Amino acid sequence: MSSGGSGGSGGSSTEHGERGAATDWARVLADATLEGVVIHERGHVQFVNAAIARMLRSTPEALVGRPVLDFAAPDDRPRVAAHMAAQSEHPLIGTALRADGTTFPCELRGRTMTADGRTVRVVLVRDVSERLAMEAELRRRERALAAVTEHSPDVITRYDREHRVRFMSRAVEQATGVPAAWFVGKTLREWGFPEALITPWETINDRVFATGCAEETEFDFTGPDGVQRHYHTRVVPEYNDAGEVEHVLTTTRDLTALKRAESAARDAYGTMRGLLDQSITGVYVIQDGRFAYANTRLAETFGYERSEELLALPGIDVLVHPDDRAVVMGNIRRRIRRGRGTAHYAFRGLRRDGRVVHVEVHGSAAPYKGGPAVVGVLLDVSERLALEEQLRQTQKMEALGQLAGGVAHDFNNILAAIAGYAQLVHDDLPADAPLRDDVAEILAAATRGVGVTKQLLAFSRRQALEVAEVDLAAIARALGAMLRQLLSPAIELRLPDAHVSAPVRATAPQLEQIVMNLAVNARDAMAGRGVLTLGVRIAAGPDGIERAVLEVRDTGHGMSPDVRARAFEPFFTTKRHDQGTGLGLATVYGLVRQFGGEIHIESVEGRGTTVTVSFPLVQRAPRAAEPAPARPCPAARKRVLLVEDEAPIRAVTRRMLERAGYAVREAPNGAAALEALRGGAAIDVLLTDAAMPELGGVELAREVAVLRPGLPVVLMSGYAELSGASVNGDGSVTDVTGCRGFVEKPFTAERLLAHLAAALESGKE
Ligand code: ADP
Ligand code: MG
User: Fold this and answer.
1) Do 271 and 319 meet the contact criterion of CB atoms below 8 Å apart?
2) pTM exceeding 0.85
3) TM spans, by residue (predicted)?
């Protein structure tokens, strides 16, 4: 192959300049350029530079003389040939074939030229593999970007400084019903978006243009389906090469579903919180010795208003009674250490006001906000414990009452006989008889004994009482004068206001006894100075029914819990033998219960005592229950059938009756009385004991009502429950058929006669 080439314009030269005298500048130039240079004549290479030799991984020597098309990839040769034939000067992108068989993309620019009378084609070759790769990468990126924007559920928009849309992603059609392409080149105002939205949008865009800082905004927009949706938009700057913000890009996302879920979650949380707060149990989470959560009920249990106050406590131990702290804190620590299981225990809590509250808790270990915690529920059981204690008390008092009542009843009959006979003897003795004083002593002792048994009977509620409407407030006021006598001058006495009235069904002497016993106890507790308050008011009970309430309050030494628990027991006293019998509160207790009332002691050691007594308030018009005042026997020689199983009582009663002029016929029991009546005994009035074995006074009265209608019956009893006459609880006997009167045992002759006279009187009507 010839290696002759032409290049320079000056004379002949050799390829390798070392032999020529003049420097071959043309060759230097050709080798200096990075572009490949090929000169061929009718398709045969005449000249190549170093760059093309490198590109083809060959040497200039190997290239010169070869057909130029050898260096085009076989597929490309027809195109290159056509380009050559057309002497085209347009650049051509083709594929070059290297000597080792590899290829590379190149850009060719050819030019046909004449030199020394020869027509040659000068071809400049540039390796474009890098550029093409870059372009391909760019296109790939653009495609990826397009895929993102096109398939994104977000609306992506590019705005220029005039607020014109330069790009709009496809999602806008879903939101507005308008295809994305229609927005391009327009402003949103031109599209008729609501003014109220456009102004804030444009303001934000302007700001991002000015500051280059990204911004966010939210808005509502009603779509073509008429549904209002909530959107969030993020606006970011887009810089040009000069570092200026040329566009802003906005990404607008539909947050409706998220918002809905959020508000549903908030609602659900609110409902949960509400339910928890209204729950009757306290609910808590304890972490690091403090409350991490507490519901309102828990706060209330400890006397706080809001649960936040509990969360603010430095530690939970302030809510625990000092004596129980070690146990409670130990339980919590153990729960946390084991990390499982539930503990159930009770302890004494401390309310904010210092009062003790009895609580029960169920606590279990559970992680809370990533840390170990105890989660639990707490129940205030103070009321339940108080009720249980009250029940125990009531049962104790019932049992004591049974015992005391049984003893007192028997004693009462014995004392009645002693007193009755003593009275008769006393009355029969001449005024100057020396024995008269002795008998008077017997009488006095018996009367004192009757007093004791009466108290016991009162406690056991077996005293037969003739109840009537009595004003509790008036009784308390009336006792004022007497009480002042009993109290030392340094004790201030406060009485109910004159206008207060509180009618109850009771008996005046027993109400007086209640007030007196309580007042005396109060005095004893005050050591000569203090304030004693007798308050009477009307208040609704827990059942909503109005009650008359008596409060006896003192500022004395108060009671220990132990004393309070036993205070109502008969013969329980903390006083010296000669100062207290221990029967005061027992009597009060029995009387109060007998009148359908309640009694309650509140006392703090060293801070005084308040005894509260309440009775059902009288709502009906009162009825007369007291018999007419005693009158002398109206008709002498009235005939009485006296029924009494206790012989001594029967005998003494007979004596009282005969002395008053009655003709007395006796019967030792109900059956005998009935027999006498059936036998046609002529009598004007029946006087019968209420409590008798087999046929009691009440049953007898019923029989009599059939046998002798209209025959007045008078019941005698010291033993209310068995009499049946007070079965109705208020001591009234008018409900018992035929009963005209009721006389309480033990009785004086005067009382007995008054009742009989009244019965006979009413029988005449
Ligand atoms: P007594 O007065 O004879 O001791 P009570 O039955 O009236 O019997 O009272 C029983 C006990 O209850 C008293 O001994 C006393 O310890 C206590 N107590 C009663 N009332 C009061 C009071 N107002 N303040 C303090 N302690 C009282
Ligand atoms: Mg007393």
Assistant:
1) no
2) no
3) none
